[in-house]
Structure formats: C-alpha cells, structure tokens
Design goal:
Blueprint lengths: L4 E7 L3 E3 L9 H11 L3 E5 H4 L10 E5 L10 E4 L2 H7 L7 E4 L1 H7 L5 E7 L7 E2 L8 E9 L9 E8 L2
Parallel strand pairs: 1-6, 1-7, 3-4, 3-6, 4-5
Antiparallel strand pairs: 2-8, 7-10, 9-10
C-alpha cells in the first residue's frame, strides 16, 4: 500500500492562494517540495496544473478534472481521486499537491501531511482543510526564519495519521 502524502504551504488562516497563484514566494520551500516529490506521482486538480509553466521534471503528473475532454501534454487526466490513486498505486509515496478542493477530497485518504505553515494570514480564495489533532500526530517540526530571500518565517510540519 502506498503512503499517500498531502504536501502544501498554507498560512495560519489555512490560506493556500488567490486567483490560482501563491501569495508568497519561499525558495527554500520550493526546494523542499522538489526534493520530496521528485521521482513520485503528483496528484492535483486542473487549476493547480494550469499554474505550472510546464510539467515539473521527473514526476508523473495526474490531473483530476470534471472536464470530460480535457487533455494536456505531460499529464495523465482522470475524473476522480479514486482513479488518480489507482494509477499511483505502485508508487510507494504519491503526493497530493492541491488545490483546496483536492486536499479536501484527499484528507480522508491521506496517511501523512507535509505542511509548510507560513507565519501570517492572507486573503485567499483557496484554503487547506483544518487538521483535526484527534486524527493527526505532529511528528516533526522545523522553523525557518524570515531572511533576505524569504519575506515570511515558516515552519515545516510533518503529520502522521494517528492510529
């Protein structure tokens, strides 16, 4: 069984982004995202996929959409989370990478959450679901201060589904 991991950067008010874009720029978080997801299946909604200038290298892109005839080069297109997870079943750790609606759908299926908690609150139109502490155990936490390359401090949080 693969370990399904949700990976996201969300503000203290769970804001993910606005108008299909992130509301912050955190190079070290992008670097960590790349390190964790390279070589794996990344599962996302159509709007998230369309924010990429081109498919991310060395990853299998699975795009979930309700649009029946949607096709994009570099992506496997499916119409449900179940179908996406079925396609990723041979990957020991497929990643759910957004957006808000997809995270909401995937939360009950996820085994792990890699969350970058951006310290601030932002106006947004996409949000990460609330993490219920009864269902999740924080297993790792690493603080990253604000610096010349990062306008906000943030903390990498790793949650494991509680037994």
């Amino acid at each position: 069984m693969p370990q399904i991991t949700m990976i996201a950067a969300a503000a203290e008010n769970n804001a993910l982004g606005k108008d299909n874009d992130l509301v912050w720029h955190l190079p070290d978080d992008f670097k960590r995202f790349k390190e964790l997801t390279t070589g794996h299946h990344i599962i996302m909604g159509r709007k998230t996929f369309e924010t990429f200038p081109k498919p991310l290298p060395n990853r299998t892109h699975i795009v979930i959409t309700r649009k029946k005839d949607y096709q994009k080069e570099g992506a496997v297109v499916v119409n449900s989370l179940e179908k996406a997870l079925e396609l990723a079943k041979d990957d020991p750790q497929p990643f759910i990478i957004g957006g808000g609606e997809i995270y909401e759908l995937a939360l009950p299926e996820a085994d792990k959450i890699e969350l970058t908690r951006v310290h601030g609150t932002f106006e947004a139109d996409a949000f990460f679901p609330e993490i219920d502490e009864k269902n999740w155990t924080l297993v790792a936490s690493h603080f990253h201060p604000k610096d010349e390359r990062h306008n906000y401090s943030f903390t990498y949080l790793t949650y494991q589904r509680a037994e």
